[in-house]
Specification:
Elements lengths: L10 H6 L2 H15 E6 L3 E6 L4 E8 H7 L6 H7 L4 E7 L8 H12 L8 E7 L1 H9 L7 E5 L31 H4 L5 E6 L4 H8 L6 E5 L7 H7 L2 H10 L5 H7 L7 H13 L3 H14 L3 H20 L1
Parallel strand pairs: 3-4, 3-5, 5-6, 6-7, 7-8
Antiparallel strand pairs: 1-2, 2-4
Helix pairs in contact: 12-13, 13-14
Length: about 325
């Protein structure tokens, strides 16, 4: 298997490469792995054909180019060490994958019995791609879905509450593969990760119902949740458990315990407790972090908290 997208180009070259040239290079590598197929003007499908477990990832050109050090799809890194197959559906724009070419592609895969060739199938995506992972998962039998901050729909008649994506709301969310909560009804399990402090994400998650729906609350991550799950190694762990049918809500929360060592999360938590005016909580948190690592920001917060507690005891 080709390791990454770096062959013949320095990182600086890839970062500065126009999207068209980057996609052309991606097409060459995709053809080596399995195939690369354009889906209309706004999407591409890239198949890495390796093993009997298939991870279907929904991704965007912008996310790949902005977040991947190797400028490669996330799915490639998630399957590399396991020798699994990956089908990456790549959106070139903020399309929410609402495109007849995408619908037709999945129709063909169903007709060809493509998904029946695999022992396990997992669909993954985040945000707009999380919506797609849920909405298109209906094509695969006994599928497992992991969706981070997904929308249930942006159809104004059902999602009037969500005004974050005005351009996307003009797209048709009423025809094929449309309302995600209905499309996951036959899934084996659906795990929805979101920060309950984001009201819109919480309402979208509540629109998914059933015993197979598992909402996972990820407090103090905000919009950084998708990248945090990858950086902490949690996403890889979750997908591996999904492939083994051992993923559970309890297991998800256990995996998230590594956030105690994840500095961006700890900084957000510190800001939250300081804003709430809880010096004792600040002291506990800052002391915990400062005791195990060099953390000037937390040491300063500890000193402020101790001073506030001392002043409080003097005036009480």
């Amino acid at each position: 298997m080709q390791d990454d997208l770096s062959a013949g180009n320095s990182k600086a070259d890839r970062v500065g490469m126009p999207d068209d040239a980057w996609l052309s290079q991606l097409e060459e590598i995709g053809d080596e792995r399995g195939y690369f197929e354009p889906l209309g003007a706004e999407h591409s499908a890239i198949l890495t054909d390796e093993g009997r477990t298939l991870l279907v990832t929904f991704e965007t050109v912008r996310d790949v180019r902005d977040t991947s050090p190797l400028q490669e799809p996330l799915g490639w890194s998630l399957v590399r060490q396991n020798g699994w197959s990956n089908l990456c559906i790549l959106a070139h724009t903020d399309s929410w994958f609402r495109d007849r070419a995408v619908y037709g592609y999945f129709d063909r895969l169903i007709e060809d019995g493509f998904f029946e060739e695999f022992d396990k199938v997992i669909f993954y995506g985040a945000g707009m791609c999380g919506y797609a992972a849920a909405a298109f998962s209906v094509v695969a039998p006994e599928v497992m879905v992991i969706a981070v901050q997904p929308q249930a729909t942006l159809d104004p008649s059902r999602a009037e509450f969500d005004r974050r994506f005005p351009k996307a709301r003009r797209r048709d969310f009423t025809n094929r593969y449309h309302y995600a909560p209905e499309m996951v009804e036959m899934a084996r399990g659906v795990f929805l990760f979101f920060d309950p402090a984001i009201t819109e994400d919480t309402v979208h998650a509540a629109m998914f119902t059933g015993a197979h729906i598992h909402p996972i609350h990820c407090r103090h991550f905000g919009s950084t949740l998708p990248q945090a799950l990858f950086d902490m190694g949690v996403l890889q762990d979750l997908i591996e458990h999904a492939a083994q049918d051992t993923i559970t809500s309890v297991g998800c929360y256990h995996a998230l315990r590594v956030r105690r060592l994840y500095r961006p999360y700890l900084r957000r938590l510190l800001a939250s407790v300081e804003a709430r005016g809880k010096p004792l909580l600040v002291k506990w948190l800052a002391a915990f972090v400062s005791s195990g690592q060099h953390a000037p920001r937390f040491q300063q917060a500890l000193e402020r908290a101790e001073q506030a507690l001392a002043e409080g005891s003097l005036t009480s």
